[in-house]
Amino acid sequence: IDSTRLPATAEQITAEAPGDRPGRVVVSAHIDSRRGSPGALDNASGVATLLALGALVADDRDRPTIELVPFNGEDDYANPGELAWIAENEGRFDEIVLAINVDDSGQRGAGNHVSFYGCPEPIERAVRETMTGFADISEGPQWFQGDHAILGIYGRPAIAIASAEMMAFMAQHAHTESDSLDLADPALVAQTAAFIAEVVRRVG
Fold first, then answer.
1. Which strands form 96-102's sheet, in the order they lie side by side?
2. Residue 46: its pLDDT value, please?
3. Across-strand partners of 137?
4. pTM for the predicted model, two decimal places
């Protein structure tokens, strides 16, 4: 491999929507893609969900504080955004009542799956009750190759939201030029943002 390493500088930005109830709910989606791939589902649809969620909760404070974290560098390269965010949160992880990671979601023709990681019974029950109001959102299998794994390492409860056809998407489209906007369903992205907003209201 003929390669060159070049120095670069980037930022790990976050946005916070303060709430009147204690604790933080961290909602994440990674903003990067691979060279040669538009990254529509991996992970522009997740970032669009974060932006829609921010608009939905802006005027509602009857909930915990929501921290929106568009992780920089989950796919490419070496997780620098995750590392910067971890460093900024050392000693504060106990504030996090739930982490929600959105990745490879909103695929046209497929619903979204929710998977659970170390959630106490009241939180898992609140998420499941919320799922009953969203026809295109159901429970799916666990997967660990995403930003929600960070919160598991630190012992915080998490859920991940991804396409019900995520494994087929990963095999056929992820990190390729075919991961284009025609794969994404804007209505499902909007529904996912509404689902997360309702989950946050219920878990606080």
1. 15-17, 64-71, 21-30, 96-102, 158-163, 112-117, 137-139
2. 97
3. 112
4. 0.95
